[in-house]
Amino acid sequence: MVRLYTENLQIAYDDRIIVKDLSVQIPDQQITAIIGANGCGKSTFLKAVTRLIPHQSGKVVLDGGDIAKQHTKKLARKMAILPQTQEAASGLTVGELVSYGRFPYQNAMGRLTAHDIEVIDWALDVTNTSGFKYREVDALSGGQRQRVWISMALAQETDIIFLDEPTTYLDMAHQLEVLELLQKLNKEQQRTIVMVLHDLNQAARFADFIIAMKDGEIVRAGQCADVIQPDILREVFRIDAEIGTDPRTGKPLCITYDLCKGDNE
């Protein structure tokens, strides 16, 4: 089943084209990882699909309708995005931050209903951040803050969650913690997860579907085993990779790699 797809999507900053005629289907209720070298258009694509930035041509279709024509609050009830850089007002508590996820459902008065409070508490519980509810966001560690921001996205009660490099600046344990949480949300609540990842092995381990990009275009999109291949990684990252199998998951594993011959000369 496909609820979200793009057709001939083109995105540009001023006169510079970043994403070119990109057409792709995002599998519903699965985890999709977007990989590619820095500057290839991954984050730009994510922002356009979530309408954070406009696109010049083509379209993004969600539930049969062009997102450019959908009401902002209605769209925010369908998709949530966690950007790469998050900023919260100084002194804001965790509970207050997570409550912002209820904005799409609030009326002009802006007051939280009993249901809003119930959803906020649920989101905190699911991400194991209930104990931080009355603490200031600034006082938390990087991993704790990331879970709190995911809580806010969950409080939005959307079926689709987009995350731009959710493991950036986190140590290995906290990276795993965040990715396992997203996997749990996908498996237990059928949330569609779409995220930009830099780590190939994390993408292979946690994603069901991978989109590999280069220079604003898709080189390959498909199952992990079809994308984490030496020829694809050579084209996308300019590396000569040795691919094996993860003994714990059975997924592809990048064991080692070198720069492609001639790239380091």
User: Could you give the order of strands across the largest sheet?
Assistant: 6-7-8-3-9-10
- What is the number of beta strands? 12
SSE string:
EEEHEEHEHHHEHEHEEHHEE
Q: What's the CATH architecture name of the largest domain? A: 3-Layer(aba) Sandwich
Strand-residue fraction?
25-35%
Characteristics:
265 residues; alpha/beta; Rossmann fold; 2 domains; six-stranded mixed β-sheet; four-stranded antiparallel β-sheet; 30% strand; globular
How would you describe this structure to a colleague?
This protein has 265 residues and is an alpha/beta fold. It folds into 2 domains: 1-78 and 159-265, 3-Layer(aba) Sandwich (Rossmann fold), CATH 3.40.50.300; 85-157, no CATH class. It has 9 helices and 12 strands. It has helices at residues 42-49, 72-76, 94-99, 114-126, 142-155, 172-189, 200-206, 224-227, 230-237, and strands spanning 2-13, 16-27, 31-36, 57-62, 65-66, 79-82, 160-164, 192-196, 209-214, 217-223, 239-245, 252-259. Strands 6-7-8-3-9-10 form a 6-stranded mixed sheet, sandwiched between helices. Helix 5 (142-155) runs parallel beside helix 6 (172-189). The protein is globular, with a radius of gyration of 19 Å. The model has no long low-confidence stretch (mean pLDDT 92).
